[in-house]
Queue: 2 jobs
Job 1
Amino acid sequence: GQQVMQIPQYQHVQEGEDFTTYCNSSTTLSNIQWYKQRPGGHPVFLIQLVKSGEVKKQKRLTFQFGEAKKNSSLHITATQTTDVGTYFCAGQGYSTLTFGKGTMLLVSP
Amino acid sequence: DGGITQSPKYLFRKEGQNVTLSCEQNLNHDAMYWYRQDPGQGLRLIYYSQIVNDFQKGDIAEGYSVSREKKESFPLTVTSAQKNPTAFYLCASSIVQGNYGYTFGSGTRLTVV
């Protein structure tokens, strides 16, 4: 079955530093989605990427979808303490999403 | 406000007892999903349903059962056959087609003692 790997598992940064999480799929994806889960909360949808090579920005967050549609990345510029949480990528399969295990981001002030 | 309601937030049960987790949505979404989340394991799909009176097994369906008698409701029963039921359970819904993500409920944390 489809597998989605995400690295790193965990990252601790100082406020103001940049952060990147990477997602790789074992199969070509029709689209990829990104979610954020705050500590003690539930996943919240951030964005969906559909086109090969697509790049989308949301304020300090930049999302990329690889040319082969098998990998993706989320980059946060100048992290803030409000960025703390676990970031999940999810690849679209035939009927459902397959989630990566997530990258937990801790930001120290 | 539209959304997904999961209840209860915390649930304690004795080993060997079946327990049903509630999930209700008023988003008019056709598809609903149940995920299980364990520390460091991400989200694993238990069951999903894309239409009333129909549902499909996910990756870890053993020991669980569901029903979809109404579009708004997708309850999950954790049976005594589930060997390790203590976990955080998340319900989600979505439009079947289109560039929209899943909307998740706030989850139910089940502890079996």
Job 2
Amino acid sequence: AQKVTQAQTEISVVEKEDVTLDCVYETRDTTYYLFWYKQPPSGELVFLIRRNSFDEQNEISGRYSWNFQKSTSSFNFTITASQVVDSAVYFCAVYGGSQGNLIFGKGTKLSVKP
Amino acid sequence: SQTIHQWPATLVQPVGSPLSLECTVEGTSNPNLYWYRQAAGRGLQLLFYSVGIGQISSEVPQNLSASRPQDRQFILSSKKLLLSDSGFYLCAWSTGNFDTQYFGPGTRLTVL
């Protein structure tokens, strides 16, 4: 069965600090897809990135970057020069099973203080 | 572009009362549709998903049910609410299995 572990329950940083959110996944599938979502206080889950298991290239989008390492089954998310607006709960997820059910980690609550 | 709507945004219901939450998607055809619940503590649990009209798969046995009467409409129901049904209910859509799921604004349900 698929599983996602986000060991960091809560992280607090000061604005402009860099912060990395860890994600470790488990899957028996050779083809799988990994995701990150952001949940601001309003509650809506906002899609950030999707990565398939064949593409191990790191990705950068503005202040966001993702490090996918198959060897350690990790898909970590780094925010550079964090801002107060980055405060949210961040979820890592993996698509598992034949029906494509999205399996979420428990989330990491990030608080960025001014 | 695609848009997903959920209503109501918030709901307070007494134990034993019925429930109907609605989700609609615009700008796409034959989407996969999903209902998730997020209880206090933040974890998301898949409740139901649908790959077409009238096709509903249940992931967790409970007193909730789902229906898909139209291509882009997904309804979550209960005949009698329990206290444990309180939570944040999120609807999502995707173009197919393993594709990105896009979430609606959610409904916050409190059962008293």
